[in-house]
Design brief:
Layout (H helix, E strand, L loop, with lengths): L13 H19 L3 H8 L3 H8 L10 H7 L5 H7 L15 H25 L2 E16 L5 E13 L16 H5 L1
Antiparallel strand pairs: 1-2
Helix pairs in contact: 2-3
Length: 181
């Protein structure tokens, strides 16, 4: 029996490429000494959108490239070009192991039914868009002088549409007689 040839991968996986890009972007940010708030202010974005640029979860628009390269000069031209591509958005479930991320997830799931009910009472049957959406993270001081986190989520409300057959144009169904000619 002949030995099987060793197959070498042609290129790294998309996940590996994204991980490498994110590592380079975060290293450039760190070297710049800038915070996400400072970058957001300079770009005219929310702090979460600015952070998402560095985690390759948001697309860098062409009108922001020059300003970003000025405030974070360590980002290479190749990485700036990569940031302008449509990103493959998603998340690694392992991030839920981080206590900060998990507690936010826990708050959303704990209050989820109540938030949905209030949205439905105030807006009708529908959902909050995560596409036409803004989020900002800030802080405030509590009654006892403690630092508190304020997360603002601002999403367009999208009504649920009734899917009535007579109101949409359906494609003709393919029948067996069409297939057999």
């Amino acid at each position: 029996m002949a030995d099987m040839p060793v197959v070498k991968p042609q290129r790294t996986s998309l996940a590996d490429e994204k991980c490498s890009l994110v590592a380079r972007l975060l290293a450039a940010k760190e070297a710049s000494g800038k915070t996400f708030d400072q970058i957001a202010e300079a770009l005219g974005l929310t702090n979460t959108n600015a952070a998402n640029l560095f985690y390759n979860q948001a697309q860098l628009k062409s009108d922001k490239v020059a300003k970003l390269s000025q405030i974070v000069p360590g980002i290479s031209k190749e990485d700036l070009a990569a940031m302008q591509n449509c990103p493959m958005r998603g998340f690694d479930p392992a991030i839920l192991q981080d206590p900060g991320v998990y507690r936010f997830y826990e708050a959303v799931t704990h209050y989820g039914e109540a938030v949905k009910a209030i949205m439905n009472e105030q807006c009708g049957d529908g959902i909050m868009s995560a596409i036409d959406f803004y989020m900002d993270v800030g802080t405030t001081t509590g009654k006892k002088g403690e630092k508190r986190v304020v997360v603002t989520m601002n999403g367009k409300f999208c009504l649920t549409l009734s899917r009535l057959r007579q109101t949409i144009r359906l494609r003709p169904r393919v029948t067996e007689s069409v297939l057999t000619g």
